[in-house]
Amino acid sequence: MKYSLTAVCFVLLTAFLYFGFSGKKSSSTIITVSTFGKQPTVTIDKANNVKVVFGQGEEIFYTISKDLGKSFTSPQRIGKQTKLALGMTRGPQITTTKDFTIVAAADHTGKIMVYRLKNNKSKWSQPVNILNSDTTAKEGFIALASGKDNVVYAAWLDMRIADKNNIFSSYSLDGGKTWSKSKLVYKAPEGGICPCCRPSITADQKGNVYVMFRNELKGSRDMYVAHSKDSGKTFSPAQKLGLGTWTLKACPMDGGAIAMDASSKVGTSWRRENTIYYAEPGSLEQKIAEGKASSLVKTLKGNYIVWQQGNNIMSLPPGKIGPEVLGTGIYPRLATLLNQQVLSVWEKEGKIVAKILP
């Protein structure tokens, strides 16, 4: 059977509009988490509750789903900070421990304030400053991870050395109530690291902590990772990720993501030029697709990666040859449910939305 050129073009155009620019369209339902908000982050607690934190203006909001992301409670205001850092991957961060939910929010006055909520309680604690009396986190980038029992780790960009950004960290043994003295993780040999990319942090139950950040070294803006084997007390010299380099005189405002699986194997996703890569420390990077603002989780089924490509939120589940379009929006983040399903949250037209990945 023969087809006219017009008919073929019509079929191709229809397929393009349905499937998107470079991936199949996902059929699962998009859920509205909040009718307002910016820069959501998500975590799953030990009871399989989905917990989301986000910002709006100078206020911090929190919501929870007890039905695996099918519905969410009305957002609860948990705090307000002058000059709250929000936008371009800045925003409040969240993690959970054995007994607590912990939220950390940086602001451009240089403080990092931590709020904590005990399991089965509704009232959040008064915030404490991770930096004690210091105000040196003026770029507003903070990352959180949980370890064994009620251990929490934090990493951030800090300007206490010659007014240049370097990587510092701290840990809490009591679910965020008190914090250790700030620890230098990496000091840039040329004055400072890339100042506008959020660091990432991941940890396990054995005391391994990994911090990833974008360096500024010899004219390049490449991703580096530092490893602690003693629960954040000391860190190894940072090593570069991947073999390629990105020569750049500006900040891409894109910090990528780092994750660890049940066997403590580490993976990372990040952007170089207009491409998203996946890389493990000491290994060759793997090209994923064009895009930016990636997030990553490692599950028993394999790696899930999401990212922003134009106005689309893209997903690459394990075992899939090509990416799928989750929906439209910006800045996606991921979390893994106890049944190994993966949930993504992101901004969409001034709202916060969520979707279970196929």
From TrEMBL:
It comes from the Bacteria. InterPro entries: Sialidase (IPR011040), Sialidase_sf (IPR036278). Pfam families: BNR_2. SUPFAM superfamilies: Sialidases. Transmembrane segments: none annotated. Keywords: Plasmid. Residues 111-242 form the Sialidase domain. This is Exo-alpha-sialidase. It comes from Adhaeribacter swui. The lineage of its organism: Bacteria, Pseudomonadati, Bacteroidota, Cytophagia, Cytophagales.
